[in-house]
Amino acid sequence: MDTLSFYTKRFQRLRWKLTLSYTAVTVGALLTVELILLAGTAIFVAVLLNSGVLQAELINAVSTAYTPPLRFLLSQTPPNQAEITDLLDQIGTTAGNTTIPLTFNASDQLFIVGHDGVLLGSKPENLFGTGSIGYPIDTQALPGLAAPLQAALEGDENVDNLYTLHGPDESVIIAFPIWDETHEKVLGALVGIGEFPTIQSTLNSIIPIMGISFLVFTFIAGIAGTIYGSISARGLTTRLDRLSEGILAWSQGDFTQLVKDESGDEIGQLAARLNNMAQKLQISVDTQLELAVVNERNRLARDLHDSVKQQAFAAAAQASAASKLLKESPEAAQTHIEEAEQLILGLRKELTNLIQELRPVALGGEGLVTALKQYAEDWSRQNLIELDVHVQGEQTLHLNIEQTVFRIVQETLSNIARHSDASHADIRLVYDKQNISCTITDNGIGFDQDDKYPGFGLRSIKERTQLMGGRLTIKSIPGEGTIITFVIPINESLGGEEKSLDG
């Protein structure tokens, strides 16, 4: 069953489909030509049989061959019966070697009639009954005999009047007038009764020959069509494989790989357009990379200004106040020192968060789940927030997808640490055949979703999700916590664009 499945899949490939189509076209064209030839042959035979050409050729050939001996025998008085019988036997045994389509052979009926209608000889001898030779012939004994025999004895040379068909098998009765040497007097007539070629009988003899030739030619044409089709299809499928390899590389973010196809046909034009598209996408990716670097720098500067700088300034102010009060009021100075220590502790925490965000995604062959659990453990310990990670249906994904998911989770946890004042958070990661979805919840203070100016972190999460072709939903109620869910398609994500966000 495995072998059958292997060959079935093999013949489902484009190359074999094209090969078989070439074979079918070749065989079909040959069969069409053969059918046209067969129909043409049938039409030619029908026209030939109905034109009187065969009858005229037969009459001329038989007259040329047998008029001299018959003229001699019929000129005798009385005619020699034995010699006439011998001549009829010769006609039955030798005429079959002529090239005329209608021939006389041993199975045909032959007889000779004198100018006065007297039967002079027949083959077989009892054709008209015993003792009929030497007496006027009974034309009623053979239906259809009267008209051609009378025309021959009257010297009618119109071929249409010298033969007739009779009986269910359409046997032919044909009469040959025998003239004297001056061609002025009819001495008698030679009459033959035999099978005349019909369209059916002619085709029955031709069709077997043509059928064998058709089979041979069809077999040869099928082999030739398969060979030529395979060669032709191989070149075409090779070019399509190049296109496929290029598109696969582009889907993985490598827009530097171009398709080499310099032909000017439709596939070559398609390759040129795809190459042009890839170059434009590469320019777009580079531009987005530059913009991402600028945005990251601006965000870092803003975060340093809004948090680190302010806390450092406040700590310096507390230290300065403690220095001034140290001699006069040590207790008051101690209070300022403790406040400065708290500010410095917060400053260290903020710097740690910023450093973690700036650190490259370190999946390093461990996979998304392992890296995420390690990061969650470090994050929970550093921020004193309980964090649970749940994973369902784990599978290996493209590196760019895993990096994007990690970045979004990292950004979300950073927002929780900075703004939520939460004591517990939860990450739930679910894989299926089409998507990877992640839900992150916390029990913090929440925020107002109607705010027209969301923070940079939320904008970054939204941009990352959209660049991967995914969707993001955020649900937050002040005082009740926040739920962030993002879904990223596994097969449709353009992994290359995510590089612009990682810097």
How would you explain this protein's 3D organization?
- The protein has 503 residues and is of the alpha+beta class.
- α6 packs parallel to α7.
- The radius of gyration is 54 Å and the shape is rod-shaped.
- It is built from twelve helices and ten strands.
- The strands form two sheets. Strands 2-1-5-4-3 form a five-stranded antiparallel beta sheet.
- 57% of the residues lie in helices and 15% in strands.
- The relative contact order is 0.07.
- The chain has helices at residues 2-11, 14-50, 53-75, 81-94, 146-153, 199-251, 266-325, 330-358, 368-383, 399-420, 456-467, 499-502, and strands at residues 109-114, 119-123, 163-166, 171-179, 186-195, 386-392, 424-431, 435-442, 471-477, 481-489.
- The model is unreliable at 94-103 and 493-503 (pLDDT under 50).
Please state how the strands of the largest beta sheet are arranged side by side.
Answer: 2-1-5-4-3
Q: Round the mean pLDDT to the nearest integer and report it.
A: 78
Low-confidence stretches: 94-103, 493-503
Classify the secondary structure makeup into a structural class: alpha+beta
Compute the number of strand runs: 10
Share of helix, binned: 55-70%
Beta percentage is 5-15%
Compute the gyration radius: what is it?
54 Å
The coarse overall form would be: rod-shaped
Q: How many individual helices?
A: 12
End-to-end separation: 51 Å
Output the helix-strand order: HHHHEEHEEEHHHHEHEEHEEH
How is the biggest beta sheet arranged? 5 strands, antiparallel
